[in-house]
Amino acid sequence: MPIAATDFHHVRLTVRDIEKSRKFYDAVFGFEVAYELPPDADSETREKLWFLFGGVLYKFGGGLFGLRPVAQGDDRFDENTTGLDHLSFAVDSYADLESAASVLDDLGIAHEPIKDAGPIRLLEFRDPDNIALEITSPAP
Fold first, then answer.
1. Burial environment of residue 7 by CB neighbours within 10 A (0 to 12, 13 to 18, 19 or more)
2. Pairing of strands 120-126, 115-117
């Protein structure tokens, strides 16, 4: 009998520079922080939050989304190798997708034009580590 999973709990991305990645994800998505290790944390707090590995976990409607700063300095994401292809976040409407494109424009973040994928529309862009990201909406 297969495992009866009902949803995702969390996704965590490995990043090179936590400050740069946090600035990017905070500006683009503005997710609420669920867990982070304060820089002045005492040893008890550090032990309690060991699972962050110096990163952060955000919470949003889909569960938890984390950044883990352990990648090598010259490492770059490549969706053509084994592992993650891309990560897609959902918005409720096509108008929200158009608004997302405007947010990326305002932040100076390069992106592809909105693409028609049948019943959905896609907005593709990349994070500071070249990780392929999408915003997806229903078709108008």
1. exposed
2. antiparallel
Q: What are phi and psi of 65, to 5 degrees?
A: -130, 125
CATH code of 29's domain:
3.30.720.120
Q: Considering only CA atoms, which of 136, 137, 133 is closest in space to residue 21?
A: 133
Residues 71, 87, single domain; the answer is no
pTM score, whole prediction: 0.89
What is the phi/psi pair of residue 26, to 5°?
Answer: -65, -45
* Residues 69 and 103 placed together within one structural domain of the fold: no
CB atoms closer than 10 angstroms to residue 100: 21
Cα gap 44→8, rounded to integer Å? 30
Terminal C-alpha separation, the chain: 39
Say how far apart CA 110 and CA 89 lie, in whole Å.
17
For 34, phi and psi rounded to 5 degrees?
-90, -45
Q: Write out pLDDT tens, residues 16-32.
A: 899 999 999 999 999 99
Alpha-carbon distance 33 to 65, whole Å?
Answer: 9
